[in-house]
Specification:
75% of the residues lie in helices and 0% in strands. It has five helices and no strands.
Length: 80
């Protein structure tokens, strides 16, 4: 694995959306390549911070409108 490949798979790796073999390859690259490892740690901390801060709930009226929209469009087969 090279730096370009590691960067291309960074977010799927952070989100745990890679195979076990690919995770091992990326981990090995991050261990061997300090610039990539540093970049990974930064992105991981940033994503965790954004997740922590962005916990606003959807206003009930918006949630109701969205659910109505989904039901109406799901019944005619245009959603999903």
């Amino acid at each position: 694995m090279n730096c370009h490949e590691a960067h291309a798979q960074l977010y799927t790796f952070i989100d745990g959306e890679t195979t076990a073999i690919r995770r091992l390859r990326i981990r090995w690259h991050l261990h061997r390549c300090p610039p990539c490892g540093d970049g990974f740690r930064f992105e991981e901390r940033l994503k965790a911070r954004v997740r922590q801060i962005c916990r606003d709930e959807m206003p009930p009226e918006l949630a109701n409108r969205l659910m109505t929209f989904i039901r109406e469009h799901d019944s005619d087969g245009s959603v999903g």
